[in-house]
Amino acid sequence: MNAQTRAAQGSHNTARLFPNPKISLNAREIRRLRGLVPPPPPPIPKDWAPIDAQNDRVAAAKKTKKPYRYKRPKNLDEKGKYVLSETINCGAVRPISSVRFTPSGRHLALGSADAIGRFCQRKNGKWEVVLLFDEHEEGINDIQFSKDEHFAITCSDDKTVRLWDVRTGKQHRKFVGHQDYVFACSVHPTSTLFCSGSFDETIKLWDPRCPEAVREIKAHAEPITGVQFSPGDGSVIASGSYDGLTRLWDTASGSCLVTIYAEQAGLPAKQAPVSGLRYTPNGSYLLVSTHDTFMRLWRVDTQPVRASRFFEGCRSLRYNCNNGFHAPKNREGPVVVAGQEDGCLMIFDMNTGKLAHEVQAHRSPVLGMDNHPRNSMFVSCSMDKDNLARVWRYESHFSGREGDPDIRPPAPLVQAPDDFVVPPVRQSYAAPGAMDVG
Question: 79-396: CATH homologous superfamily?
């Protein structure tokens, strides 16, 4: 069992799903996390409604718990919706904690709390496991691929980072040096370097040919929850932490270039812990998620760094729910996909910052998501006891099939006074925009 799910399962070791340190725990909660007392039943969200409409007296007499159904909010995008494309059962015995497509999108990796990484390939119209990465001693928190797709990097609660040969499934090298859970990792665009962020508050840079770290950066005052090399040249490393800070580091020297405070965005943040971060594909913007119901999109290619967009209403105050980008081919522009603690996926329009879709994807906190690099779909995973990953695709109301250009229906024939028939005119929507929001 890994850091993603250990808090919910009642073990004494917790990392990815450990409640953020800004929230104090009483003695009973601490004993529960250590497995000494059974966990209390989860509270019922206010927006859940019982399916059975019978009165409470009949339900109490039967002494049975009513099933609950989530009231799905209205789809705010009139041009399309997100639908479930596929459910992936990889045989995991613990919840899936991380998901990652290869750069080409031909393969998919699933990291699980059972300490096994599963490498999947598309066969017979579905994703099937072809290789296992099974050398970790504890659960996997993150997984990344080299650009040539020959190697995979995994980090785990066993305080190690491991390099795998995806052609054979064998461990190529084990990297030891962190003193606490390794929470996140990132591969340099040239695949000659990779970094890892840990709960020991440090970032370590590694050369794949050397088992020892080539550089250690004492980056934050509290556990690190996200690291990523800048796309393109990889000259900058972005990091986020429970101390509420986001920092940009020079890859070559290890010096701090910029420190970003959430308060700089002009919203009351009070140093809300950073739960995750991700660069846009063009490297101009950095999406930072915090435990204050906000996500902030920072423009980091200019000086000074400034806030570009706000995404409000997120329900992620205790757990590190992963977020990312999605750019469907049959939609006008890109979106930001945000996992929530109630299992929902909140999907925001990136150009306007407004909520466009909300999908009840899972029943438990969403732990990870990743966008397919070529097709109009993404994959998500959660703490659900069914241990499944789900693939979602955008379905336009105006396209014949997924991936087609988004075309309006033809206009009706208009009869002119002189009996001349005006031919129908087709008007297409604007082409999908780039991730850069200007």
Answer: YVTN repeat-like/Quinoprotein amine dehydrogenase (2.130.10.10)
